């Protein structure tokens, strides 16, 4: 079992940056593919980014490619999402996710979820 604790959300102006952090418990953190999803009001939760166990392969939704970067520090059991050039449409609750099986995380199969952190981008 793994527990995920997110931080770093907040209010930022369009064009600005935020870095989200997700600290994971457990001695087998390096065995998990990690990622981020987001959910805007009235919308379904959608995939944002994922990174494999080694941290060598990363995957991004088309909507964030070139602006967001996911990376992890296995020694600190933490995964990050660096968000640059933020847009109002990035406003959502962002959720950390963990799964042992799939490098590209899916909403319906992801094993563990964080509690979510609010990101609000003003125009």
Structure description:
This protein starts with a strand and ends with a strand. It has about 120 residues and is mainly beta. Strands 2, 4, 5, 6, 9, 10 and 11 form a seven-stranded mixed beta sheet that branches. The chain has a four-stranded antiparallel beta sheet with strand order 1-3-8-7, with no helix packed on it. The chain has no helices and eleven strands. It is globular and about 40 Å long.
Show the helix and strand layout.
Elements: E1 4-7, E2 10-13, E3 18-24, E4 33-39, E5 46-51, E6 58-60, E7 68-73, E8 78-83, E9 92-99, E10 112-113, E11 117-122
Determine the strand fraction and express it as a percent band: over 45%
Percent helix, as a range, is under 10%
Backbone structural class: mainly beta
Number of helices: 0
Dominant shape = globular
Q: What order do the SSEs take from the amino end to the carboxyl end, as H and E?
A: EEEEEEEEEEE
What Rg, in angstroms, do the CA atoms define? 13 Å
| Strand segment tally | 11
- How far the N terminus sits from the C terminus, by CA atoms, comes to 40 Å
Mean pLDDT: 95
The major β-sheet equals:
7 strands, mixed
Poorly predicted segments: none
């Amino acid at each position: 079992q793994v527990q995920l604790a997110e931080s770093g959300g907040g209010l930022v102006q369009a064009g600005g940056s935020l870095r989200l952090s997700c600290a994971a418990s457990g001695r087998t953190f390096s065995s998990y593919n990690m990622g981020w999803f987001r959910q805007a009001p009235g919308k379904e939760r959608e995939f944002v980014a994922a990174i494999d166990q080694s941290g060598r392969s990363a995957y991004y939704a088309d909507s964030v490619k070139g602006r967001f970067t996911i990376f992890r520090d296995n020694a600190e059991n933490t995964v990050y999402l660096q968000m640059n050039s933020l847009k109002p449409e990035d406003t959502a609750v962002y959720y950390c996710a963990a799964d042992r099986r799939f490098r590209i995380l899916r909403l319906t199969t992801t094993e563990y979820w964080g509690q979510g952190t609010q990101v609000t981008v003003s125009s």
